Amino acid sequence: MTPGELLKLSGAYWSSCALHAGVKLDLFTKLAEAPATAGEIGRATDCDLRGITMLLDALAGLELLAKQGERYEATPFSADYLSKKSERYLGHIILHHHHLMDGWTRLDQAVRNGRPTWSGPSHSQDDSVRESFLMGMFNMANQSAPLITPAIDLSARKRLLDLGGGPGTYAIHFCRHNPQLRAVVFDLPSTRPIAERTVANAGLAERISFQAGDITSDPIAGGFDVLWVSQLLHGEGPASAAAILKKGVRALLPGGLVLVQEFILEDSRTAPLFPALFSLNMLVNTTEGQSYSQGELSRMLAEAGVRDIRRLELELPSGAGIITGVAG
């Protein structure tokens, strides 16, 4: 690394903040519909002319907008991923990242005292913050699910438990890919309205149901032959994560398939980079959460009574991986 690269790393949040502001102001939806001047966008968004001009120019510099003369428009990429009218819209996860920033600015405090700097956005009492988290998970899952569902044979399976399934994205994709499959999404009561909406929008309300509960304390009905646990365990400490897996495995019939997706660290814990940084995100936002290594997850599964444990050979975004095994 050079001094210039070091300073670029230090100031990288400037670019992030410009992107977040563009999404919060919904500039990309407007500019995907038609080109406009800074004055026109400023009036449409009730923004100061000087401020909106600077933001639009910066977003053009980031190649998220195109500028011709005095008019700005969305690029094909930003129209595809940053316009609310696109099915590929990623604005929810970007807003979730924005809501995390305040806690991250006090990372040194979290490192000193080992406690979160915020109670965590996923359980916020603010409806907009909670929705950005849940729909952000929907955004992320929609990126990975098309890679995952064809690689996992569920043709002989009938009932899937999506443990901590949030908006039900993976349940939707698994059921679309396996017409015989039914699913239950188990998550907190506050998640229910969003999950039921996404399932209904997918046309799968007759095959996917929601069970409200706290995974650490409430019972889970049995009779499933697939357990899907995606990006849930990192929010818990080792003992709680192991207990959650045991509870999930107990809900399976003998021979049930166990599938655990996480951001998986190498045994050195320094790579891949995203899971290593994600551990800090858990430090800032949870009391005990962390990223886990493949060895740690495999041991938890073995202790839960899972056999034939292995990692699927899938290349997934952000260092994610899937560890699978068979119950009983």
From TrEMBL:
Active site: 234 (proton acceptor)
O-methyltransferase dimerisation domain: residues covered: 8-83
Keywords: Methyltransferase, S-adenosyl-L-methionine, Transferase
GO molecular function, one term: O-methyltransferase activity
Record-level GO BP terms: methylation
CDD domains hit by this protein: AdoMet_MTases
Protein name: O-methyltransferase, family 2
Gene source species: Pelobacter propionicus (strain DSM 2379 / NBRC 103807 / OttBd1)
